[in-house]
Amino acid sequence: MALFKLLRQSPWSARLGLAMVLINVFAALFAPVISPYTETEIVGDVWMPMSMDHFLGTDHLGRDLFTRMMYGARNTIAIAFITAILSFIVGIIFGFFAATLGGWTDLTCSRIVDILMAFPTLIFALMALSIVGTSISALILVIALLDSTRVYRLSRAVAMDIEVMEYVEAARLRGEKIWWLMRQEILPNAMPPLVAEFGLRFCFVFLFIAALSFLGLGIQPPMADWGGMVRENAGAITFGIFIPLWPAGAIAFLTVGVNLIVDWFLHIASGLKD
């Protein structure tokens, strides 16, 4: 009931963002049901125009673009979500440990993070994926490792502010263990900024996967991926065919939707009145 009350009080921008995200989630969950063809099935000629049989036309191999878009939503969103979750688990655990223990633990973790963040993210990912391969598991692990450094910085900063509060000191005096402090005292009070950051990091990971796919080191064919679909059909622009704009627009559509929700949540977490 509290959630519905919150939604009723939300601004139109947040409702629009939620609707945009739900459309993408629906496409990702029910892609096999709503798609007229299979993911890799060749059903026509190259770059056919929109028709009743092919709602968005066909791609560079004659596959139905609407079907590829639906499966691309499932693949791209699922991998981005799993990667963001993994990066947050790693970043939050190490960030909270560094803030709570301090000393050499904090110094060691922070210097390792500094070294990883010193490399340009895209270049580091391209080198790592060239070495370990471009499998789905390798893609998730490499991006999660790189993104966890940003989460570590935020979670450490938030935890250090919470760690000096009186209720944390009281828990220490009672003899509570480190895990208890992190789970019962620090994490609940750090949730608002971390949840807002999760939305932003999800957008970053989502766009990063699309960029890697565009460069040929992301999700590999024949799996559908929006970034890869832009790269595969980029040549159509030369002939005045705007097929690549559909997956590019889908990337922008989801990104804008998530950011609208994050802006609303940040406004709620700040405690400011309209």
Report the order of strands and helices.
HHHHHHHHHHH
If you average the pLDDT, what whole number results? 89
How helix-rich are the residues, as a percent range? over 70%
Rg over C-alpha atoms, rounded to the nearest angstrom? 22 Å
Helix segment count?
11
Note poorly predicted spans. none
User: Can you tell me the CATH architecture?
Assistant: Orthogonal Bundle
**CATH topology descriptor:** MetI-like fold
The amount of beta strand, in percent, is under 5%
Could you say which overall geometry the principal axes of the C-alpha atoms support?
Answer: globular
> Could you give a short account of the major beta sheet?
none
Written overview of the protein:
The protein is globular and about 75 Å long. It has 274 residues and is mainly α. The protein has helices at 2-8, 12-29, 31-34, 65-101, 103-118, 121-132, 136-163, 166-173, 178-214, 226-232, 245-270.
Q: Notable features of this structure?
A:
274 residues, mainly alpha, MetI-like fold, 11 helices, globular
